[in-house]
Design goal:
Layout (H helix, E strand, L loop, with lengths): L2 E13 L4 E8 L12 E9 L5 E7 L10 E6 L5 H8 L5 E8 L11 E7 L3 H8 L9 E7 L9 H7 L4 E6 L10 H13 L6 E7 H13 L7 E7 L2 H4 L2
Parallel strand pairs: 7-8, 7-10, 8-9, 10-11
Antiparallel strand pairs: 1-2, 1-6, 2-5, 3-4, 3-6
Amino acid sequence: MATQGTRIRIACAEPLGPGARLLRIERADGAEVGFAGGQYVIINTGVTLPGGKLAKRAYSLLSSDAEQRAVEIAVKRIAAGPGSNMLSDIAVGAELEWSGPWGKLRLPDGFSGRALVVATDTGITAALGIARSAAAAGARQLELLWLVESAAYFLPEPFVRDRLPAAASLTIAGGFLPVGHPERPARACAIAEEQLARGPYDAVLCAGDGAVLYPVRDRLASLGAPEGAVLLESFFNNPLKKST
């Protein structure tokens, strides 16, 4: 069940390459988080933005949902990002607040079919959470496709592969076009179409750049992906938010 204003404590922190950090977090009251793989929390960093609002940032839980009293997130330091910089430097033992868990990007309980998880950029954290979830344990096949600009962009490949269950496969489309490139959506659609040729899949879950993933979702649907089987979580560039 999602909660608001829950106190949390940074239990452990470790670097993940030059621009990323792994944080292990516990609820201050010792209670279980109650999340399913693929969900996220919204952390109140306590940083006040120029307009007076507090910097609240969403982070997917990349740890296994078999462990509910301590969870993990990965933070990418963004040069001009007050929230990411604060969490990149926060001390072990510090306390903050979060709300959640939120989100419906998850496999259904008892899933036993073939699933494809498409992640761009930082969406790999949600993909890891899905792959490590209890719901994924019964999947007949689980394939992850990660579209990422470079090996140094976020999480190191060895870290990602080490966290994946043995039954899950990972394909990395390295050298992917940078965020904002005009040809990025079309390139992603072409890669996803190649992946879909290995199907059919019973579920397709997408996380990351909304400017890429909405066209990918529409393309997969046009190629015969089951209606309602393609789920999407936009980490950034969400076209729905821009239109409201």
